[in-house]
Amino acid sequence: MKPKIFIDGEHGTTGLQIRTRLARRDDLEILSIPEAERRNRDIRADMLRSADIAILCLPDDAARESVSLLEGNNSTRVIDTSTANRVAPDWAYGFAEMDAGQRERIAGARFVANPGCYPTGAIGLIRPLVQAGILPKDYPVSVNAVSGYTGGGKQMIAQMEDPANPDRIDAPHFLYGLTLTHKHVPEMKMHGLLDRAPIFAPSVGRFAQGMIVQVPLHLADLNGNASLADLHHALEGHYAGQDVVEVVPLAESAKLARIDPTELNDTDRMKLMVFGTEGKDQANLVAVLDNLGKGASGAAVQNMDLMLAR
What we know:
The chain is α/β, with parallel strands linked by helices. 32% of the residues lie in helices and 21% in strands. The longest helix has 15 residues, at 117-131.
């Protein structure tokens, strides 16, 4: 009997991406609501309770409502792609490569919180260095990032692509989150194992999808007089033995003159790189990923497969 999968919010950007991925597969039964009925609470509740796994592609409050509709149901397992449960203690964090044993935690969990796109890159860079004892937990971390505009959902896609949109965005690139209270910050702090909230400066470029996340560091403020090689070694050791997160060799990174945020588009992978000049006091850690791949729908499907032991 095929596992039943329900995508609650399948007509949004992330939901459509997941639906496209699952449409290629014949080992699953996909439960679906017509778009005209997507707000019908009774139909949604029935679908949620009928599914083996429900993937929530909804705003935070709507995701919380969907979970509440499962009260009295102990069988449906949930993957939530919103920010509603990413720091909740009873939800497994769905970044399978984050730690040894994280795959098993996801596989055995009933509730899984899918990571945000920006935090996937930031945590992927920060957490291994904290665990290796190189990056102090109270280090004043800053995270600078640029995403393709699909990360803003249907509304931003229309603002960027529709010339007739009354709220059209004409800028080739813009900075936002100017109050430093972006909803991804608690997630970065908690899963990055930091004692201080990082300063997060997100931005959006006029390209549909793709992402670069940067974490600049002063080497003299790290533990043990860490070098570029030490940073690279810690990342390389942390992600050894798996093929989703690639740590680019230092010598290969040193040859690069520029980085393309769209390099990994339409894949579910992430690249991590260490930049700097030997003898200088600075390093720049860089993650490249597809904000719709490893940063959203690709991670959700990966987590679903772990939960189904696929």
